[in-house]
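Bench notes, bay 3.
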Amino acid sequence: MEVLTIATPGLGDMSYLLVHEGFGVLVDPQRDVERFLSAAEDRDVELRWVLETHLHNDYISGGREAAARSGSELVLPAGAGAAFEHTPAFHGEELGTDRISIRPLHTPGHTPEHVSYLVAIEGDPVAVFSGGSLLVGSAGRTDLLGRTRARQLARLQWGSIGRLASLPESVGLYPTHGAGSFCTAAVAGPSTSTIGAEQKSNPALAHSDAESFADDQLSGLEPYPVYYAQMGPINLNGPTPLEYGEIPELGPAALAEILDSVTVVDGRPKDAYAAGHIPGSFGIEANQDFATWVGWLVPFNAPLVLILDSERDLEEARLALGRIGFEDVRGWLRGLDQWRDDSRPILSHETLTARDFLEEFDTGTEMQVLDVRSPGEWNDGYLADSIHCYLPDLVSSTPSQLDPSRPVYIGCATGHRASTAAGILGERGFQPKVMVGASLLGVLMLLEQRRLADSQA
């Protein structure tokens, strides 16, 4: 038996292809199914089952299409009540053959219908696909369906992860959610593990009762992207295939004609965005988190125009957006040179390094600093007198403490979120200065080191 991990880093998720004696089992595939079908074809594997552990909240499922195209059996949790043809997975009711069996285990918590799948070879349990239940070093969060249900789902999650932890120590653990996923209650570890390793080290398994687990599970949860609210209903009612139409390359005049009816997302590197961008455009660098931030800051499936440097960037951006249901891309602009040559409106903002920031800090001039990191990052430490506003909240409102007549120094952990925030504030008449290449927490540590050095001098 072989288990191939197929990661989607931008979502912090893993899909799996289990291969045994010429046939395969595909678990939790995303909407871009070609890579999963190709992996099976490369290994000369006949797909027999496509398994879904739950109705996903962070992406549109590709399970329905993968099953249809491969002629395999689509299996969903019985409690999901999905509105399209599938085989319902009931707790303990085995699928499989004489040599391999797949046993659904009802593991509610992350979602009410959630099912994990225990795989046995010739009667010996060897692997469990745990979806959003027991994760590596963590457990799936239970508040994605609303805070009113979160505590009861956390109680159920406690029982579910305990059920999985009672499996033999040698059983491999293959969760869908991992590092980088907003579906984890705490920072998750590497993609896979074993039951024995989690018994020894997973903090989620250290609680003696459901209430203490729920208290811990629900404390300090980070906000999650607003587009999640759209994913569950789509996956319940019937996810559709990801279709690729041609995206026209626009010139400045063509973009200007539709500018009032689209949202412009500028995916160029943050230094290029700082040097010049279209007023009102969102500066979201086309890295692995690109789609997550578009889905968080832009209304769901709003008509988009993308500004990118190359066709390769366009293809990667379109694929990432399609995974979460953003398909209405009206066109793209190759960089900003033509727009600039036409003398069309452009905004820019300053960038500065941590050293630059400290030099200005040392002048004694009062600085207004905007920290756009998440609440959890803020709680880990922040600059005295800085103003906190998580980036998603900045879209809807400007902190009242900000003075537009003075520069606003904006920071986060790397400069990516600060760059997006600078575009928002620049459009509102502020004078943003973005700290790049260093985190605000790092600057705080440097200041503390200097303070200690001065006290010891």
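Next record in the batch:
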Amino acid sequence: MAHALAELGHDLRLVGKSDRSGSWPGYRLSGAGPLGGRAQTAAFALSSLAAVARDRPDHVISTHVNFGPVAQLAKRFFGTPFTLVAHGIDVHQGLPKTTLAALRDADRIIAVSSWTRDRVLDLGGIEPRNVSLLPNTIDETRFTVAPASDALRRKYGIVPGDRVVLTVARLDHRERYKGYDRIIEALPSIRRECGPVKFLIVGKGEDQSRVATLARERGVNDAVSFAGFVPDEALADHYRLADVFAMPSTGEGFGIVFLEAMSCGTPVIGGNRDGSVDALDRGGLGMLVEPMNVEAISAAVCCLLNKQGPEWWFDRPALHNAVVRKYGQDAFRERLRQALPF
């Protein structure tokens, strides 16, 4: 968003909760970190208000609704209009009263998907015309089509004849909605139908032990690999390693990982209940599946492994080009220009 705003000619002042003070190409960055915990949150709120008092901007954008109350204070003290960005599960009926009040007072709310927009409007007291849809974007220069890494194949024990299903997700009990355990439930059926298939999970967290136990119980522990944390610079190579990217989630606000996978030319499967629907362009860019139905997940994975679907889904450069046209940075910048009230 910052890149797009700069390219649209706006002068930026940036405040980051987790950043140290410094600069971001051409702009001052006021950072609050790293203090940790509530102290860092308080420092970020104070830094944000101080920046508004000092610079008197024409508009404030908070990229998380949790800091809506800070933006609302800036409006109250200095008359500065503000926009909030809603991502998905951050918007729910149990929001604190102060956050809900900020959402209702916002001059504009940006929702990253239709599912997220519906969640915002379900809160009540928010005018539909004040909620703009702005899907996430992709760094198409980093997530590109390239040959799979032989070193990664060796690292994960992938031998000729193996096909790879990939999920990228934190292994956290709060994120089980992403559906990685249901892929393991489906894996025995997938392997019976499609032959040697490996399931590679990129991400770490306390839920890994439970998932590993589930793999042993289902008799597929030899087919499941846990990559753990993968740094950003190595992520594209993991997408390129996969024949199918699958994340049958039920609570995804959008799913940037789908765009990353497709930008690397890997066909994708997503759930049909959440923001994944937008990321997959309602089934135009990838396969949507009932995310709680293990048989449906198995059938969908086998379908893509057997290249059943639009021919261009399995042409890596064509898939890359399609997702860039739909969700690349040029498209994002134009949607952002239309979404903002200034």
